[in-house]
Amino acid sequence: MTHSATAVVYCEGTFGRQDGKTANGLVRHSEKYRIVCVIDSTLAGSDAGTVLGDLASGIPVVADLGDAIVHAGRVPDTMIFGMAPAGGMLNPAQRADLLDAIVAGMNLVNGLHEFLNDDAEFAAAALLADVTITDVRRTKDKKDLRLFTGEIFDVTCPRVAVLGTDGAIGKRTTTTLLVEALGARGIKAVMIGTGQTALIQGARYAVALDATVPQYCSGEVEGQVVAAFHDENPDIIVVEGQGALSHPAYLTSAYILRGARPDGVIVQHAPLRGTLGDYPAIPMPTAASEIALIEAFARTRVIGVTINHENMTDQQVTDAIDEYELEFGVPATDPLTRPIDHLVEMVFQAYPALRERSVLAAT
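RESULT FIELD:
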């Protein structure tokens, strides 16, 4: 697939919500596909960017596959399953909709833990329609997986990990925005993706950590960072976080801290999220408790706090920024509602040499 490949994102009933995070991310950023529309009948007629609280994107939300084909003017190349439910399995309605896309002649990109190439019904449908199914979370053979080697200690550029206090809290979005903003200021920044959405978006250096045998997780992260360092000669590497170090189920942040050995961490937090997204009986950690845990677990420092503004007024965002800056003594910002320069400044304050490089690049 090239960047010109067209794609419809299937996100029935969940677009703009936590379980729709893959679709949400693809609307905001995609290097591999041109997203033509999102399928979610509950929001049909809306602009996808507006649903996310962003500026209008020009990507419409449509009711079904038929509307998607009418909008595109032809059958799009690919259907992307844009949901990330906790169980990672298809329900009957979703199966039917995806099979319809295959019958229509669309390739299928699947980010679930359920591998559709191994499903006889899907495999037969794809064979008959002469299309492909890509199971993004299918890992390499175990013989090709990498154990931690210590080569990370030879990586000399700064490494920042964007971690958080929960899953689906905006870590990948903040990582993407930061890398783009640094690049616009003359800093060569490379992103390391650690989940299925980054892989679907087209990240060059990425691994689906939650589908990797735990013994190899640190080594696989290390391998992506080392490859990016040698291939790109970057000024800084920014690693997307997964879950949270404190999370009872999604704790792959531990492997990111051990494998990437970041010298700086940005913590993403949703101040008004009361309970964990997929575990409503468990209260959210505080930003303070997560920062303390991260700095106790790894030889690193938190260089800033970024805010997910869900359910917050603009004044509440401003108050949270002021509160965190006073409490933690580091910069805080909301990457989506505040100037992107504030996010860049967070990194420049922690790494003054990058500020100097940016100034030189501008002269």
